[in-house]
Design goal:
6 strands; 3 helices; alpha+beta; six-stranded antiparallel beta sheet; 26% helix; single chain
């Protein structure tokens, strides 16, 4: 996670400390699973979960990955989402964000691009977002960008999957 993503996690959870979800949850592990699933799976898989420490209010953040069938083809903007200019598609809401990027890599079939969705959303029972909605959207988008960029680098995607070095938080 980037330093910006660490700050964003504090905006989302209200905490600057977190519990480990499990040792097998890492960018490297998620990338290895994606390579194994390439051309087979379009189900959503956990990359990791972020929890607040014991003894503090419960909060779970789920980071997921999915192989998409291709580039986005439909209008993505449900009313709660803000469309951002990152990757092939980036959407941010006050309780979730998604980034899709294309990856051409020697770790995957080099003749084709994989289209990868990274999602970040609050786990557990849905609740109404509390606080500054715009700050929450930016925070979720920042975490989704950070994990997407880390995944693109781990997979050795050409040009980091078209992802910028820093998140683009201005609406498209």
């Amino acid at each position: 996670m980037s330093a910006d993503a660490s700050k964003a996690l504090k905006v989302i959870t209200g905490s600057s400390r977190f519990e480990a979800s499990a040792e097998e949850y890492s960018v490297a592990q998620a990338a290895a699973e994606l390579v194994e699933a390439f051309l087979v799976s379009t189900v959503t898989n956990d990359a990791c979960r972020v929890y607040t420490p014991r003894g503090t209010p419960d909060f779970e953040l789920r980071i997921t990955w999915r192989l998409a069938d291709g580039p986005p083809t439909d209008d993505p903007a449900a009313p709660e989402f803000t469309v951002l200019k990152m990757g092939e598609e980036a959407l941010a809401a006050a309780d979730k964000a998604y980034v899709r990027f294309a990856c051409r890599s020697d770790r995957l079939m080099e003749s084709t691009s994989a289209h990868i969705d990274i999602g970040v959303r609050r786990g557990g029972m849905p609740t109404e977002p509390e606080g500054n909605v715009e700050a929450l959207k930016d925070a979720y988008a920042t975490v989704a960008h950070s994990f997407s960029l880390a995944m693109a680098k781990e997979l050795r995607c050409e040009k980091n999957g078209g992802l910028p070095a820093k998140p683009v938080l201005d609406p498209a």
